[in-house]
Each structure stands twice: as C-alpha cells, then as structure tokens.
Amino acid sequence: MAPAAAVGVALLPLASRRWVRHAISLALLLLLLLYLCAWSFRALSGCRSGTQSCIPEGTSPVQVPRQSGPLEAPEWEEPQCVGPQGVVGRVMWPFRASLNPEGDVALSQYLAGWRALVRFLTPLGSIFAFATSEAFAKVTTLEARVHGPEAAHYSSLVAMVAWERREGLLERPGIAPRDTTSSSGSRILLLLHRALRWSQLCLHRVATGTLGGPDAGAQCSDAYRTALGPHHPWLVRQAARLAFLAFPGRDRWLELACPGAGEAEARAALVRVAGTLEDVYNRTQGLLAERSLLQLA
C-alpha cells in the first residue's frame, strides 16, 4: 500500500470519532433548547414555583404605559364573530361584564373570560400548550375559591384582597409558595393579570400589523418582552425568544378569530377584543397598585 493511502486509512477512524463527538454535542444542545422552550412557556404567567420572585425590588408604576397605540376599530359594521356566540365574542363579553359599575372587577366573570381566552389560544399550536395549561390551572384554582366555602369573600378583586389581608393570607413579597394551590387568590390573580397584558398586546399587534411589516411572531415576541420578560430570568427570556420563531402566522390568527370572514372583518374583531382586554388590565392594574400588590409575585 502506498504511504499516502496508508495515512488516509489511518485517519478514517479519527475523523469518524470526531464526527460522533460533534453529533453528540449538537444533539445535547438541541435537547437543552427544547427544554428551555418548554420551561419558558410554563413560566409565561409567572416565575417557577418554590423560588424567590424574579422581579427586581423597587416601586412599580400604577399603570404600564400603553404599548398598543389607539384601540379604536375602523368604522365597519360590527363583525358577527364579536357577538356573544362568536369565537372572539365569547372572550370579549365575559371580560367586559367583569368591569362592574363600582369600579371593581367581578372575579366570576373575569375567570369566565380567561377560560374563553384559553380555548381561543389552544388551537394556535403546541407553542401555546404550556402557557394555556399553566393559565388554566390558575383559573381552576381561583374558581374553586370563588365557588367554595369562602365564596362571599371572593366575589370581586377588592373583596378578595381585603379579606386575605385581614386573615394574613397574603405572601411576603419575593417569597413564592410551593405550588399554585397554596397561593393566595391575590397572587394567582396577579400572575393572570400579567399574562393578560401579553395576550392583549399580542392580539392588538396581530390585528393592526401592516403588509410588509413585522410578522406575528416578531410582534408577539415584542409583546412578551414588554409584559412578561421583566418578570422572567435571563435563560427563560432567551428560550422564549427562540420559541417565537415558530409562532403561527397572522393569517392563522385571523382565520381562528372570524372563521369564514374577510381579513378586514377579522382584524376589526381582534382590535375590539384587545380594547376590552386593555380596559380590564388597566382597571386591575390600578386596583392592585393602590393596595401595594404589584410586587406580590
């Protein structure tokens, strides 16, 4: 055998071993990214249980500055899908009903709105699976109190906070309970409140995005950085950024919002729903801030 050929044969096992090492490293990296993506969407409505809060200490503003711009829908006839039996109407009407005339938030209607929102988001794909399951668990836990033995104290946000404070049930800021079921109702509501802001911003930006502008994934990723990113650690934020690369397109959102309707009608419907969610968010934000509860989780 020629010397050059002998050297080539000798190098083959070495090259093969190097290829295997690189392949294993790449596989481990991909598994880590998948784990972080899953972890990030379990955390979309709050930090991991059993750990201290991810929020830096400091005073939180009474109202988050409006990020969504004007929420007025164009002057079209109201889309059928925002009626009480419409797809997005079933989300909008319970949330609207939760804003009672006394300036409070009715918890039963608020949670009914959240249930409808989870049903709307679930068909958008596996990227929402962790976020919606986490929100659903919080809704179910809080509903058990709204309809439980202490239901009289859980009729509204103001009543709940007053009772839990009087009974010493509120957590110390920065200390998270072991699981959702042992959380105070006020803390559960705060976590849902933050996730609602992300949902509202995402819906509005999907509805008002322009042709040739950022796609739905980029817009909802930006909404995440505004509403939830500040409450999550760095690793979760990076995993979320990667997960949004697989976000459903705008057409899919519009099709789910108003099946069979035209694009203009579906966009108008999402704008109306986003407007209602922002009204609920702003009232809740003000009530929680007045009671110094924005740092509870």
Automatic annotation (TrEMBL):
Residues 106-257 form the Glycolipid transfer protein domain. Pfam families: GLTP (PF08718). Signal peptide: none annotated. SUPFAM superfamilies: Glycolipid transfer protein, GLTP. GO terms for cellular component: cytosol; membrane. GO terms for molecular function: ceramide 1-phosphate binding; ceramide 1-phosphate transfer activity. Gene3D superfamilies: Glycolipid transfer protein. Keywords: Membrane, Transmembrane, Transmembrane helix. It comes from the Eukaryota. The chain crosses the membrane at residues 27-44. GO terms for biological process: negative regulation of interleukin-1 beta production. Belongs to the GLTP family. This is Glycolipid transfer protein domain-containing protein 2 isoform X1. It comes from Zalophus californianus (California sealion). The lineage of its organism: Eukaryota, Metazoa, Chordata, Craniata, Vertebrata. The gene is GLTPD2.
